[in-house]
Amino acid sequence: xxxxVELKKVSKTYKLGDNEFNALDNIDLxxxxxxxxxxxxxxxxxxxTLLNLIGGMDIPTSGTVxxxxxxxxxxxxxxxxxxxxxNVGFIFQFYNILPSLTVRENVDLVRDIVKNPVSTDEALxxxxxxxxSKKFPNQLSGxxxxxxSIARAVAKNPxxxxxxxxxxxxxxxxxxxxxxxxxxxxDRNNGAxxxxxxxxxxLIADIADTVIHVKNGKIESVTKNENPKKIDEVKW
Length: 236
Known about the structure:
By secondary structure, this protein is an alpha/beta fold. It has 7 helices and 10 strands. Helix 3 (103-111) runs parallel beside helix 5, helix 4 (120-126) packs across helix 5 (142-155) and helix 5 packs parallel to helix 6 (172-185).
């Protein structure tokens, strides 16, 4: 499978008053299409910054970010907005769904901005929430709300699904259900979709195709799992 992500000598520096902080420091990285990738590292290591650059939510201070052969680090804000809308799904720890909209309306919202969306019914069925489509978020459990955010991301039919601590606010049983849904996303579009999960939970690495360790703004290691465990095989 060819690369979906290629980072070449990428750095990201933030200014804090008179000081500068290197969130990422001259990193190189390649990620293949169709993989489930887990990014591990302590707080402040640069994990979320890496996700933001791949997702087009930020641009590097230096270096090149190539996504599916396109140099998005040269995009202006309008092109980045189009890139995010048409290519990337985002899942966060705290759901980010709109409380004033029903489950169906939350999912419908993103379908209007992309070219080849998955139907709302299909997305909700995939996460087991079709029968809850008329409910509002405050009528759902935390795990169900996270599944709404996954349905919303899946409805975009994105080539990249970026997840920042997607199970961090969930109990282990619900977290396993969410991880199964994320693994299924890799099988869409003939196995060409890619899921990248940023997490502190080292157990999730056992189910990944590739594990990236980040420390002090650098890629410490990239490990390929030749035989990833099935999610039910991991002792959570």
